[in-house]
Amino acid sequence: MIDQLLRELAPQIVGPLVRRYGGFDTCEDAVQEALLAASQQWPVDGVPSNPRSWLITVASRRRIEMLRSEAARLRREETVAGLESSEPAPLDVDDSLTLLFLCCHPSLTPPSQIALTLRAVGGLTTGEIARAFLVPESTIGQRISRAKATIKKEGAEFRLPPADELPERLTAVLAVLYLIFNEGYTASSGESLHRVELSTEAIRLTRQLQARLPSEGEVAGLLALMLLTDARRPARTAPDGALIPLPDQDRSLWLDDFVAEGTELISATLRTASIGPYQLQAAIAAVHDEAPRAEDTDWRQILVLYELLETLSPGPMVSLNRIVALAMVHGPEYGLERLAATADDPALKDHHRVEAVRAHLLELSGDTTAAQAAYRLAARQTLSAPEQQYLLARADSL
């Protein structure tokens, strides 16, 4: 409970400190120290009556110590003098949205955006982020340090982007949240299919974003997509951790509240907002989730939605998923023909999902020998142990 509270409060502490003292990099460091102090003291002394105020006070003291340190004195003399002679900025404003946009600054690489967002906005420690992505803690630490140095070098101001920059910057924010969710929902490598801490954090941050930008259709679309997708998580793995594909899942295990919330959200959004890629993906997820059984899935509707999505936001994975929908509507042989046409796409070369789709379609067509070989090839290409286990099991079953 304390860890969850600290994650919720983290962005509410960084923003006020940056507005009062300046210097995102050092303010974020001060907040991390305050969060560490809280994680050690609160379990023993109890959570203070006003935990946000407690964290701001502790972080402010640490920030002032930094300002007065020998290493910073000469660089900050004028700044400190200016701060002492000016009226302090208020500390009771929630700047989570501004902080999220800053962490997704366009000058940063996607890995740096993700790491900085998870630490500054999500409240995860460097170690937690490293464990989630299965990389050394030093690697994440370097990404965060470089990201903060880049923001400082770029002279990025702690404020919401101007109106003419907002759409582009919002696109970057949504992309980062989507990447975090996807890595949590289907880990790209490792022994576990899910990294629940990442998908949960992505949903929490997207909820916050949607609450602050309720009229943005793509924000609502992304939140709906996450909810409708994460609703299936309890049914995606067997007791031994093996992957269970969508058609074989026990749908009674799906999270009904997530399905209901996501469906209501996307239905309302499609009626009121301009259609975007996340909304279309959410609509596809809703069609899957609303089917009582796999055989009841409305594949014709899904195919229409994928055709719209490919027109609006083309990409290799969209094309691959559209081929699956085509095969479900027009037959596996037609799907195999369309799949063969993607052979020259460099983005799909050696991607395990291509061979997994090929194997599935070959199995549906009755060519079990070729399907078996394709399943084994897909298993060799994936870095995910649960996916590999599932693909080899499918090959053995044939």
From TrEMBL:
Entry keywords, A to Z: Sigma factor, Transcription, Transcription regulation
Domain RNA polymerase sigma-70 region: 6-71
Gene3D superfamilies the UniProt entry points to: 1.10.1740.10, Winged helix-like DNA-binding domain superfamily/Winged helix DNA-binding domain (1.10.10.10)
Origin: domain of life: Bacteria
NCBIfam families documented for this protein: sigma70-ECF
UniProt-listed PANTHER family: BLL6612 PROTEIN (PTHR47756:SF2), BLL6612 PROTEIN-RELATED (PTHR47756)
Family, similarity comment: Belongs to the sigma-70 factor family. ECF subfamily.
Name of the featured protein: Sigma factor-like helix-turn-helix DNA-binding protein
